[in-house]
Design goal:
The protein is mainly α and 216 residues long. It is built from six helices and no strands. Helix 1 packs antiparallel against helix 2 and helix 2 runs antiparallel to helix 3 (72-107). The longest helix is centred in the middle third of the chain and has 36 residues, at 72-107. The protein starts with a helix and ends in a 10-residue tail after the last helix.
């Protein structure tokens, strides 16, 4: 029988793998629907999901390296590095989405198809809730990377709910296309806040600071 610590390590890797698979399954559908529906909000969700997937893939590598290192300080370094990379990607997505949304608000938006936008957002919401359940709310007490994954997943669920509402409104009214850009800006702000906080925490961890990730 494996010791409790080894079981916990295996459980962490397994949970990250499941959430990564869920994210990868979403990306293609989000891109296709985002382009077909002319929805920058859905494309923003696709970019965020891609960034999360990259972070998850790197995280799995970092967790494997950490589990081989008995020294706590050295073991935490790969996790903090991955968290910093993930934060950088999130901030880049924020800037890209914000620029596109502002351009559409200023110059006008193409006709947005609300129904496919709403359907894919509902699916995304369900997948993100499933991912959060797989991770478990206790993930925020494990390490900076596990907390970042949980925060990303919960933020993505909230963003999907916002895009879903916008899609339903656009579909039922046949107008309010600008709402898609507004939701995209809100989504960009959420992604940016998560990315900035994660970057600060990761840098502090790399510098050896005693960061309390539970109380954020």
């Amino acid at each position: 029988m494996s010791p409790p610590l080894e079981t916990a390590k295996f459980s962490q890797r397994r949970r990250l793998s499941i959430v990564l698979a869920l994210n990868l399954a979403l990306i293609g559908g989000l891109v296709v629907v985002g382009l077909a529906a002319h929805s920058v909000g859905v494309l923003a969700a696709a970019g965020d999901t891609l960034a999360d997937s990259i972070g998850l893939a790197l995280g799995l590598i970092a967790v494997a390296l950490r589990d081989r290192d008995p020294g706590r300080t050295r073991a935490n370094q790969p996790i903090a590095i991955v968290a910093l990379i993930n934060a950088t990607i999130l901030i880049a997505v924020t800037v890209t989405v914000a620029i596109e949304a502002i351009i559409r608000l200023v110059e006008g938006s193409p006709a947005v198809l609300g129904l496919p936008m709403a359907v894919v957002s509902l699916i995304t919401l369900a997948v993100m809730i499933a991912g959060a359940l797989v991770l478990g709310l206790s993930a925020h007490r494990e390490d900076v990377h596990m907390k970042s994954v949980l925060l990303d997943t919960l933020a993505d669920a909230a963003a999907a709910a916002g895009v879903l509402v916008a899609g339903v409104v656009i579909w039922l009214t046949g107008g309010f296309d600008w709402l898609d850009s507004v939701i995209a800006l809100i989504l960009a702000a959420v992604i940016g806040i998560v990315g900035a906080r994660l970057a600060v925490q990761a840098v502090a961890a790399l510098r050896g600071a005693d960061v309390d990730f539970e109380d954020d």
